[in-house]
Amino acid sequence: MLADSDKEESKEGSRIVKYVGSIEGEIKDFKREIASRIQNQAESEKKKEILGYFFNQGAIYANANLLGSSMS
User: Residues 16-58: pLDDT tens digits?
Assistant: First the structure.
C-alpha cells in the first residue's frame, strides 16, 4: 500500500499533468487562431489586389474613351 507521502506526490503529479495538458491545449488553440488570422489577412490582400486590377482596367478604359471622344 502507498504511504501518505507517496499518495500526496501522486496527487500532485496528477495535478501537474492536468495543468500541462491544459496549457498545451491553449497553445494549440493559440496556434490555430494565429493561422486563421494569417489566412484571413492573405485572403484580404488577394481581394485588394484583384479589386486594384479591375479598378486600373476601368481607369485605362475610361481614359481610352476620353481620348477617343476628344479626337472626334
Answer: 888 888 999 999 999 999 999 999 999 999 999 998 888 888 8
- Chain position carrying cell 488553440: 29
Q: Is the dihedral of CA 20, 22, 25, 27 positive or negative?
A: negative
SS3 of the chain: helix, strand, coil, percent, to 5:
95, 0, 5
Report the alpha-carbon distance of residue 5 to residue 13 in Å, rounded.
Answer: 12
* Distance between CA atoms of residues 18 and 10, nearest Å: 12
The CA distance from 8 to 19, in Å, is 16
CA distance 8 to 38: 45
How many residues are there in the chain?
72
